[in-house]
Amino acid sequence: VKYYTEPEQQETTEIDDKKKAGDRRGSANESRTPQQNLIQQHLVQNLNRNMHWRPNSNKPGIYTDPWHLTSLKGHTARIRDMDFSSNGKFLATCAEDRTVFVWSLTSLPATRSFRINVPYDHATKICWSPDNKALLVHTHQESTVMVFKLDKCKKDKESWFSGATNSLTFPKVFDSECVGLQISSDGRHVMSCSKDGKLILFDTKGNVTQKIDDTGLGSNHCARLSPNAKFVIVCGFSPDVKVWTIGEDNEKASTKQSSQTSTDSTLRRAFELTGHSGSVCDVAFEMQTLRVASVSRADGWRLYDIDVKYKKGQSPILLKKASFEKPAESAAEEEISHVALSPDSNVICVSLGSDLMFYETEGGTLDRCIEKVYTTGPITGLKFDSTGKYVFCTGDKHVRVFHNVTGYKIEIRENLNKLKHNTGVSNSATTERISKTIETSRKFLESIGEPEWK
């Protein structure tokens, strides 16, 4: 039975009329059987429950997809950025609701969160300190870097966050939007980059140690620090991606200082990644800093090998490229595209507006495109976790977590080739371990109804 309700101002009168009608029918109710009275009670309960229902409800639906693991919910406005802790146990997100959330990733899909309020402002960029004891955020209105020191306590035999204090605020150096904020893995440098072309290095106390007023890219779209704290990479309106080195630029100096920490923060031009025909939206490093992926709305993504002798003039090697099969949905989303490279560099994940695409890097083929991950806007961030099993993407109010199904397929194919050609198989124990890995991956693909590559 379906019920329709009139506007709220008529609800009270309708309920009163129903009560009066019920009183007039009191004698008729006494003649009904117990089953008829029970049915009437259920109908009345359904009526009362639906009296406040409205057809134009704004409650979001539940997102479902075979590759989708879970959604991290807590923010009440659009999420701007995210970052993983160095130990891979935590994820930090910042949103326009003036909050920062820290999520536990040790028991996915179940998770717990800790909330930090950003006073009188909201953060647009966020990053973890190497020791996982502090968070750095770049605020929108004040355009400064704030450092939040995290306090922990042990509860139920598990260490969890109990508070956060603003221990340091960097001086204001930007007048435009921040497009990159990251602290080096050795904890010596804090990199910040603005959209108007500035690139700045701070020390951990907030002092400016190196500054480039114009990167020469027209406008900056994204800036990253390499995992080995050696390179700074910046992309922007220009089709070329520029890379700088941090510190000493000769092998002898690095050898002499191998036993002590270098304090040199000089930025020196290293090389460029060329080949795109339009502005580059995003870049991503591989875990070992051997490869870099870049994406452009004009001609798709590219994968480069940067393990070259650039000091002797050798240029990075283009390994693979692929173009998008579908155009941009609207002009407003022209520059909204992100790229993520799996830790083993076997999978490239690219976002185009609100669509999410998984590519195999060896052949450059598209495995699957997940359309409309978010219905209210584009994807604002994209990253693999440290294990490479999951892909995290931000947009709207939720963090979507997807299985790296393409990675499972590649793992099965590579292990089958090892068994077939006896590559890397030294004894029976190794063969048994590889066989179990194949069996586990196949069971996972069967559980989500995904076919195995032939």
From TrEMBL:
GO terms for cellular component: endoplasmic reticulum. GO terms for biological process: endoplasmic reticulum unfolded protein response. Residues 15-27 have a biased composition (Basic and acidic residues). Residues 1-38 are annotated as: Disordered. Pfam families: WD40 (PF00400). SMART domains: WD40 (SM00320). The keyword Cytoplasm does not apply. Keywords: WD repeat. SUPFAM superfamilies: WD40 repeat-like. Residues 28-38 have a biased composition (Polar residues). WD repeats lie at residues 72-113. InterPro entries: WBSCR13 (IPR042410), WD40/YVTN_repeat-like_dom_sf (IPR015943), WD40_repeat_dom_sf (IPR036322), WD40_rpt (IPR001680). The keyword Cell cycle does not apply. PANTHER family: TRANSDUCIN BETA-LIKE PROTEIN 2. This is Putative transducin beta-like protein 2 isoform x4. It comes from Xenopsylla cheopis. The lineage of its organism: Eukaryota, Metazoa, Ecdysozoa, Arthropoda, Hexapoda.
